[in-house]
Amino acid sequence: MSVLISPSVLAADFARLGEEVRAVDEAGADMIHLDIMDGHFVPNLTVGPDVVKALRPYSDKPFDVHLMITPNPAIVESFAEAGADLISVHPEPDPHIHRTLQAIRAMGKKAGAAINPGTPVEILEPLYELCDVILVMSVNPGFGGQSFMPASVERIRHIRRRIDELGLDTILEVDGGVNPETAPKIIGAGAHALVAGTAIFRSKENSYAKAVERLRLGTAV
Ligand SMILES: O=C(CO)[C@@H](O)[C@H](O)COP(=O)(O)O
Ligand SMILES: [Fe+2]
């Protein structure tokens, strides 16, 4: 299976967000990763569904929406209506994660469970069958530009093993500190979707296409 690249626009130029989304689409991105933060679950604020809707015309690629919010069914639904294709939610702040994942699927969207580095992987056991995506955070969520946490490799390997044992075709996606040095370890552990903000939007070679391809091939520079 070829590796899917989902550029996180958190590292893009926010004053030119539409053009940035178009640019990474044309550079070969497989999805567009949109980080939604509410200032409660994570110590940062980003954008809401209106911005997601405004960006929708800039790319036909799936919108991979990562909700770092205290759960609220109406808000989750508003992202579906805004044009999200994948919606990942965190079980940590959600007392009804089952219901949330089922609701996302009922809206015709792919449902994802995203877990923080400090959350035991066992939290996923009752959720695997309800997930189209597992999003493994390899940094503590809230900000771009952080360093990949090496302990994530073993967590990815464990989740890959469980997905295979259960015979599922869940997308195993990794988010945080993904760059040409860490990508080969992440892919080697069994992930096949990579989120990257800094490594694409702020790559030194100034070519989104080269940055996307380098990550996809898992080639260390
Ligand atoms: O969800 C998050 C951060 O909370 C991520 O999607 C970051 O935006 C990834 O940024 P880099 O680590 O690639 O700079
Ligand atoms: Fe994210």
Main beta-sheet annotation: 8 strands, parallel
Structural class: alpha/beta
Number of helical regions: 8
CATH class: Alpha Beta
CATH superfamily: Aldolase class I
**Share in β-strands:** 15-25%
Write down the oligomeric state. Answer: single chain
Low-confidence stretches: none
CATH architecture classification: Alpha-Beta Barrel
Order of helices and strands: EHEHEHEHEEHEHEHH
Which kinds of small molecule does this entry bind, naming each only once? 5-O-phosphono-D-xylulose, fe (ii) ion
Shape assignment: globular
How many domains make up the coordinates? 1
What is the topology, as strand order, of the major beta sheet?
Answer: 1-8-7-6-5-4-3-2
Helix content: 25-40%
Radius of gyration, in angstroms, nearest whole number: 16 Å
